[in-house]
Fold:
Amino acid sequence: MEEQYRISDPRVLKAVAHPLRVRLLGLLRSDGPATASELARKVGESSGSTSYHLRELFKFGFVEEDDERRDGRERRWRSRHVYTSWDAAEMSATPEGREAVRIMHARQAEMVGRMLGEFDLADWPREWVDVSGMSDHILTLPPAALREFADRAEALVRELADRHAGDPDARQVQVWYGGVPRSPGQEES
Structure:
């Protein structure tokens, strides 16, 4: 699997930003190869719908058939990349690009909300409950400091993943970080 899929075409970003496609791609990345039927059961959709959206993801280069674990009756799909990235400044050069980035940000926020909504503290031992959750901060920073935060957070995430690979206590975890400037007069939520 390749490390990243760097998108520069707004049409490709919009194609993956479809709500079901984002979920299917995320499941293939986190859970590994699957058939359309297996994914349909996980997301509560018909296999016809998931099959269509998997073919669309294939058309735009996000997934491929998994020939190593072929199912005799149905295609098995896998993600081609660990993650997707794009240059927001490059995308924002056109109205279509700005719209694609807005849509993708909305999908990312929906995913965070869904993950937190599905996280039930009662299902986890105290050691996981103590370290799980989210926080938010309102800081006054210049663009260079926000860039430094993003770069250092990315480096730390990679270092921790490498250091704890193979740890028997390790579990897949969702880690989110980001920052955007607040518009003057913007209400806190």
Residues 123 and 129 are 9 Å apart (CA to CA). DSSP finds eight helices and five strands in the chain. The two ends are 39 Å apart (CA to CA).
